[in-house]
Amino acid sequence: MATKHKELIMKELIENEITNQFIDYQEDSSIVPLYFSGDVLEMLSQLPDDSIDCCMTSPPYWGQRQYSSGGIGLEDSFEDFIEHLLNVTLEVQRVLKDTGSFWLNMGDTYKKKSLVGIPWRIAIAMMDRQKWTLRNNVIWNKHKGGLDSSKDRLRTIHENIFHFVKKPKGYYYNDEAIRTKARKTKVKNGAVVSATGVTGVRYKRQIELSTSLNDNEKDKALKALNEVLAKIQLGEVSDFRMIIRNQQRTTHSDSAKVSGRAKELVEKGFYFLFYNPKGTLPTDVWDIIPEDTQKREKHFAPFPKDLCRIPILATCPENGIVLDPFCGTGTAMTVAYELGRKSIGIDIANDYLEIAKKRINGQQTLGIF
Ligand SMILES: C[S@@+](CC[C@H](N)C(=O)[O-])C[C@H]1O[C@@H](n2cnc3c(N)ncnc32)[C@H](O)[C@@H]1O
Asked: How would you write the pLDDT of the chain (369 residues) with one tens digit per residue?
């Protein structure tokens, strides 16, 4: 009995220690990552509600890899594995701010020749049971896979990265931070040239020679084209395409009942497609080669750093905190640090956390608690 009481007091002291460490870190000006060594649920339960801006993580695969300290992923059934992970996603939901984002990277597994569908089973349970909103399913195209001796199915080369938010509206998202820079408009031989070389000369000729537009429609189309070119010159629009009746191929339905653009073609004879002057958003397919594990001493499945850039840039404000509850060798923390954000890493394996600490070049981390 006395031993049990002593154990409880010790547990409480450790818990307070972790909570206090976190609160001090929140208030500190340093962005050097803070690491917690221990079981994910035990550690998460000691972080305050609504305190994290962005969670990016890659939990262990079910039944495929064994890390140095065991942990999640060793369950006999995939149902148990999913339930364990759902306990973690619920805790992530609690510690995440309402403006926060949760990026969950998951790979799938085969069992008795059948793909189990683990990433989607978890994503659907998170939406149905925990009321997460799923904003994107990113396909991570890894370009190269591990050794695969199968002769009766294709090689697996992708993983999923789900972007979840707590509320469908009001979450932090800095789209400008991740847009690819738009090319600049130029003036060449007195003519305005758009970012991709559109001058309007070809469109003008097509309008003038068109047998599908009447004179009134031609006048309106030329006037509208000149207005767009003026906007290009002023830098209000960086690029555009003009779709003219029976000239350009369209990507929408031809039915004016279902497509607003088809309706414009029927009624006016033309419409414009404008490009965002701030650049284009990345797509939901990311071509990123996996990290070269040869260079690492121990770990099996580190993130490539590039995988963490878009999530952190877009969904963690500059003064925010990134969390990786299965941080392994601390890739998400390293990227957060390089991008000027604070970060918290949790892992059950102390030796991985030691590697993580060494990755912050020339900086002392706050140690492992
Ligand atoms: C896929 S790895 C993460 C790799 C990491 N993204 C990186 O860049 O190195 C999964 C990690 O989960 C850790 N882990 C497994 N079960 C755990 C548990 N119950 N609590 C905390 N960490 C756990 C493993 O030690 C492993 O480092």
From this structure: 566 676 776 666 666 888 999 999 999 999 999 999 999 999 999 999 999 999 999 999 887 656 556 678 888 899 999 999 999 999 999 999 999 999 999 999 999 999 999 999 999 999 999 999 999 999 999 987 777 788 999 999 999 999 999 999 999 999 999 998 766 666 676 676 776 677 788 899 999 999 999 999 999 999 999 999 888 888 777 788 899 998 887 766 667 666 777 888 889 999 998 887 788 899 999 999 887 655 555 555 788 999 999 999 999 999 999 999 999 999 999 999 999 999 999 999 999 999 999 988 655 555 565
Same domain membership, residue 131 and residue 56: yes
User: Are 48 and 147 part of one and the same domain?
Assistant: yes
Residues 136, 55 share a domain:
yes
- Taking the C-alpha atoms of residue 351 and residue 299, their distance in angstroms, rounded to an integer, is 9
- Whether 251 and 319 map to the same domain: the answer is no
The answer to whether 248 and 242 are in contact (CB under 8 A) is yes
User: Are residues 59 and 169 both part of a single domain?
Assistant: yes
C-alpha 330 to ligand 1 mean position (Å): 10
Cβ–Cβ under 8 Å, residues 316 and 341: yes
The number of distinct structural domains making up the chain is 2
Give the pTM. Answer: 0.83
* Residue 200, domain extent: 186-274
Tell me how far the alpha carbon of residue 348 lies from the centroid of ligand 1, in angstroms: 7
Centre of ligand 1 from the C-alpha of residue 221, in Å: 59
Tell me the CATH number at 341. Answer: 3.40.50.150
Domain shared by 193 and 219, yes or no: yes
Could you tell me if 155 and 231 lie in one domain?
no
In sign, the C-alpha dihedral spanning 9, 10, 15, 17 is positive
Q: Who's near 139: CB < 8 A, 6+ residues apart?
A: 158, 159, 160, 161, 284, 285, 286
By residue count, the chain amounts to 369
- Of 245, 274, 303, which residue constitutes the final position of a domain? 274
Q: Which residues have CB under 6 Å of ligand 1?
A: 39-40, 58, 60, 67, 69, 71-72, 299, 301-303, 326-329, 331, 346-349, 352
Pocket test for ligand 1, best of 56, 67, 83 (most atoms within 8 A of CB): 67
